[in-house]
Structure formats: structure tokens, C-alpha cells
Amino acid sequence: MGTVTAAEEARAVEQARARLTEAGVWDVEGDVAALADRFLGGRRPERSLARFEAAVTERCARIPLGHITGSVTFDGLELLVGSGVFVPREESTPLVEWAAGEKTLPHGGRVLDLCSGVGALGLALSARRGDAEVVCVERDDTAVQYLRRNAARHADVLGSVQVRAADLTEPDCLAAHRGVTDLVVANPPYVAPHIRLLPEWADHQPSAALYSGEDGLDLIRRIAVLAAEVLRPDGRLALEHDRAQPDAVQQTLADGPFTDISTFADTAGEPRITVARFTGRGETS
Ligand SMILES: C[S@@+](CC[C@H](N)C(=O)[O-])C[C@H]1O[C@@H](n2cnc3c(N)ncnc32)[C@H](O)[C@@H]1O
């Protein structure tokens, strides 16, 4: 095996740029940089060059970048991801910032992260608020495995984190948390089936992580019911949803025992995070 010269690497990077542009990915420079960082250089450059080109081929097939590199950074935490799990989106971080505020979450508060996937919201919140007790609830076996690994990897910077495998559509799935929870956060599936998604989502992420009924809101409605069961009076709820859904989500919450309902933007400026305060059982706003 001969060594790879800097000129050969530069040529491979240039070809990658052209191939990714042709494939229609939206952040060619970011993807090239991430793939070069992960696969080029190192002690066996010949193999690295071949691996880099294979990785570019995968990205041209619109496999999500995180599935190719094996990790994604969310709110400063490097989270392990892979085929079969939803890749956390950095755009969700304003939800974590809101949730971590002292006005939202009292000292030592109890948090449920519902539909936690590989753990983005719950682990990031725990890293910011080590005093909180966080329980992450996820149904999918593969996601739960990644979630446990991510919690273990970052144990040194996290507070109390428990991982529970559970299906939120099951009756009494959160019975143990009834009336004692200070904050519920959730980025559940919410895509309506008529929405056309980019191939990274439509073809390569689990459909159970994306879709939820005819209008996409089945699980959000279920979470509103569950939140009213588990929250203590004055407890808070934060939901991520589609940019077309703020009115529907706000109405769902206003129809239940929630008040102080508002929607704010994710980091892309889209109105995708709705928060509310639980008034208490039997009361409506
Ligand atoms: C959009 S992904 C979000 C994951 C994570 N919250 C994040 O922000 O990266 C939705 C997650 O909900 C999980 N999920 C879907 N239906 C569920 C159910 N009935 N009970 C529990 N989890 C569910 C999926 O497996 C998936 O991991």
C-alpha cells in the first residue's frame, strides 16, 4: 500500500464537494468538513481515503450525516446515533434552554422526557441542571440502547437520569409519576403523512419516530392527556411540533387543564416549540 499524498486528499475532497452538490445535500461544506474530519488522515491514510469515498457515497444516497459518522452534537453533548434511530436536531435546543430555566424547573425538580429517542432533550437538560431528576421514556428498543449508552458516556456531567422502555399509548404507562412531576418535555413524532420530507427523514429514519396519525397530532394529544396526569399543579409542559401546527397544539392544550400557553421559535426561526402551565386537575383556564 502506498501512502496518500496531500494532493490526493485534496482531490478527493474536491470530488466529494462536486458529488454532494450533485446529490442535492443542503450543506455541502459542512458535510465535507464533517466527513473529512471523521474519515481522512490518521495512521492508515490509504484505508481512510477509501473509507472517506465510501462515506461520501452514503451521504450522496442521502443517508443522514449522523448515521454515517456515528454521532451528533446536541447542546454541547456528543450523542451516539446510528441506523434505525432518529438523529437529534440542534434546532431543538431552545426547548432545552427554556426547560432549564429556574422559573420553569424548581431546584431538585422531577422531569419526564417523553419519546426521548437517543436522549437529546433529557440528557442535555440533565447536563444543564444536575440537580433535577430526569426520567427518559422511549418505546423503541434500538433507541433505548443508544439512550442507555449516551447516558453512560456522559454520566460524569449528568445528574440523576433514569431510562424507561415504555409505550406511551399503553394505559397507566406513567402511573408511577402521577401528580409528582414538575416538567414534561417531548419531541414526539408529529409529521402528517401528506407532508413531503427530505430523503434523510423519509427514507432513512424510523417512520415511528416521524408520523403520528392523519394530522400528525395523535401522540401530541396523548401527551397532553398524560401531562395532565403526571404534572403537579403549576408544573410545565414543553412540546416540539411542526411549524404548521402551533395553532392546533395550542388549541389542544387550551381545551385541557393548561394555561399560559405560548409558542416560540427553534434555532431556525420556525415556530415549533409550545409551552404551557398545568392549572391542576379539575380546573381549566
Ligand atoms: C422525533 S423522535 C425524537 C427523539 C428525541 N426526543 C429527540 O429530540 O431527538 C420521536 C421518538 O418517539 C418515539 N416514540 C414513538 N412512539 C412512541 C410511543 N408510543 N411511546 C414512546 N415512544 C415513542 C420514537 O421511537 C422516537 O424515538
Task: Give the helices and strands, then pairings.
Layout: H1 6-23, H2 28-39, H3 45-60, H4 65-69, E1 71-74, E2 77-80, H5 93-100, E3 110-114, H6 120-128, E4 133-138, H7 141-153, E5 160-165, E6 181-186, H8 199-202, H9 218-230, E7 231-240, H10 246-254, E8 258-265, E9 271-278
Parallel strand pairs: 3-4, 3-6, 4-5, 6-7
Antiparallel strand pairs: 1-2, 7-9, 8-9
Helix pairs in contact: 1-2, 1-3, 2-3, 5-6
Bound molecules: S-adenosylmethionine (SAM).
Which residues sit in consecutive blocks of at least 5 with pLDDT less than 50?
none
Ligand names: S-adenosylmethionine
| Mean pLDDT, all residues | 95
Strands of the largest sheet, in order across it? 5-4-3-6-7-9-8
Q: How many helices does DSSP assign? A: 10
Give the tags.
285 residues, alpha/beta, Rossmann fold, 2 domains, seven-stranded mixed sheet, two-stranded antiparallel ribbon, 10 helices, 38% helix, elongated, binds S-adenosylmethionine, DNA_methylase_N6_adenine_CS, N-methyltransferase activity
Note down, in words, how this protein is organized.
This protein has two domains: 6-61; 82-278, Rossmann fold. It contains ten helices and nine strands. The chain has helices at 6-23, 28-39, 45-60, 65-69, 93-100, 120-128, 141-153, 199-202, 218-230, 246-254; strands spanning 71-74, 77-80, 110-114, 133-138, 160-165, 181-186, 231-240, 258-265, 271-278. Helix 1 (6-23) packs parallel to helix 3, helix 2 (28-39) packs antiparallel against helix 3 (45-60) and helix 5 (93-100) crosses helix 6. The protein is elongated. Residues 86, 88, 92, 115-117, 120-121, 138-140, 143, 167-169, 187-189, 208-209, 219 line the site of S-adenosylmethionine (SAM). S-adenosylmethionine (SAM) binds at residues 86, 88, 92, 115-117, 120-121, 138-140, 143, 167-169, 187-189, 208-209, 219. GO terms for molecular function: N-methyltransferase activity; nucleic acid binding; S-adenosylmethionine-dependent methyltransferase activity.
